[in-house]
Structure prediction request, 389 residues.
Amino acid sequence: MIGRRNLGRLLSVGACTALVSTGCAFQGLNSLPLPGTVGRGAGASVYHVELANVGTLEPNSPVLINDVVVGSVGRMTVDRWHADVEVSVKPGVVVPANAVATVGQTSVLGSMHLALDPPLTQPPVGQLAPGETIGLAGSSTYPSTEQTLASLAAVVNGGGLGQVGDIIHSFNAALTGRQEEVRDLITRLDTFLVTLNEQRDNVVRAIQGLNRLAATLAADSDVIAQALNEIPPALDVLIKQRPQITTALEKLATFSETTTGLINDTQTDLVRNLRNLEPTIRSLADVGPDLDMALGYATTFPLNQNFIDRAVRGDYVNLYTVFDLTVPRLKRTLLLGTRWGQEGAQLVPAPGDPSYLNYTYDPLSVGVAPPPDAPPLDTPPSTPPTDGG
Prediction:
């Protein structure tokens, strides 16, 4: 009797101790550290994992690295809108620094586990220090069996899976008897794709050009908007003036026909007149080099530019001019070549004469002539003729 009473007391004390150690909140045996759980005890490393969805994960669930059980899940608490899961790993186990936490289903019956593996395309890097936390960005949850079956049911019932047979039947009916056309279509598609692949650089350049054009248009959007606002009134004016424009075009067509007929009728005479004008135009071209000199002399009359450059020094020049308007001088100058001119006087050469190229009006370009012979002392000076005076 004493032994049974002592055993009952021990059980009562143990139960009270367990309740006190768990904060007086007993949530089932799974909330307590079960005997034989991997990763518990002295020397175990504790980590924290933030999970957006724990699914049916429970405390004491196994923790796997490379499909090997290395620890277990401890306390699970709620931190704001995600779960904070405590993970205990047995001593000597290296958790990679780039590990990601994944909640998966161990069996079809619903047993869950937490895997701490590096990403699929990356090797393990470094070691995660005890006490560190794997954040939400490094955690995920695989779909459960219920979610998979629900998705499959949605595909089978409402996803159109039953219509695949009808699609295949219609496709078969459309291709039956058209094998040659289908082969030709496939050949054409192959040629088209090969050509398109060869023109890939040109297509890229065209797209880049369109991009630059779009950027330019976007930069001038205000100008384009203003133009679009002003073009409709201009079009309205053109629409109102359409009868006058049409009449003008018709008159222009009539004028063109008349001009064409006139040119056709006078073509021979026009060509003849142009040929007759050829000597005159050639002579005008011959005097072309001297024409600019004459035009320049007209702006500096009575002095030419050559004389000004050589004789004038400073802002002023003293000029003493004698105008000889006597009849003998006029006969030898202005009236030369007319009925009143002096007979036998040398005429000024005209363009085309042999001496024209050697003739000059510039007195500075003529050499110094020797003085005339002096008359004898006993001979009276001759009186200049006064014919016509």
